[in-house]
Amino acid sequence: MHPVSASIGVKNVAAPSVLETQHGSVRPLAAGDLERVAALFLTKFRRRRHLLDRAIAETAEYMRKIYLGPAGQTGDSNALVQINPQGRLGGFLGVLKAHYEFNGAALNAAIIGPLMADPGTDHGSAGPQLLRAVHQGAFDLHLTDSANRVSLAFARPMKYQLLPVHCLGWTCIFRPAAMAAAMARGKWPGLPRFALDPCARAFDTLTRKRFEPPAQHSASHRVHREAMDAAQFAERLPTLMSDYSLRPRWLDGELPRLLALAAEKRADGPLHFGGTYDETGKILGCYAFYGQAGGIASLLQIQASGSHWGATLDGLIADARNMGCVGIAGQTQGRFLPQLFGYKNVFLRYAGGTMVRSRIAEVTEAVRSGDIFIGGLMGDRWTRLSSDDFGR
């Protein structure tokens, strides 16, 4: 890695509070925008044709919490709205502020979430206009781990770097028929359990050997796993990130608050924490996942030190199995993808674009080489906006 240049120490000039163009204006999200933004979100991302007042109210209140009320936030929201020349909402860009460090230098980061435009008021200008506005703000780093293909088309010409491995999701199947039944109930919540579960149990009994637990990467009695709580996870996760040059810098109380918000997510069950340790009690890795018996577990975060990714994955998958989950899904990372190849019944798929943009050459090089901690808590998949069905 080259020495950090003086450019990192240059203070960025904040973007104007309102940016005017011939296509309208972009300004920070305000409380008065929330209901309109919530309605647009439900229409675009939840495909709601008939919007219920309670769904709009619940979505708006959640957006107020994460975009207008973060601890330590002063001044305007980092999230942005585009207002067309007629004064109507044209689009919205969800932005969460985060802190990174690069070889010890502090960086301000913008985590970009939902990007959406109202087709009734927008003529293709809202998305690019919102992205250009956030690029003019006081951020050294812009990143997202959940871009859809439309957002990819907007962002790639703006010099975002795509991280292909992080764009993949992985799924490990424990009980195939029960997993298919869980997916069907997720898509059609009204399906009665008695119509699916007996058939699923019979099929899974027949295929039990094919889907038996995978061989452990580390069968040594000197490596063991233990459950932990959110406070312990918040204390131990930062200690496992020292080998990344570009990594989060969570301020006092910031990570516990983030985990408390992540625990509000409902779609995949409660949030659980675990870790792997050596015989002396030294932490080797830790993980956080959502899960409940009969459901598909969803990985929030996993991190390990050195060569201990395999043992940490073993612990994660064993905990999800023992809980009664029918499978587990998560986002890939370059550092544990090779270990995933050692498991049977693991499938990879495109799950959302992970992209990073920075004007700092050394930061760009670190991203290009994969020397960045990104995804999970340093993304927006932990929010309820990524999965929950509001107002139901």
Automatic annotation (TrEMBL):
Domain of life, per lineage? Bacteria
Kindly provide the name given to this protein in its UniProt entry: Uncharacterized protein
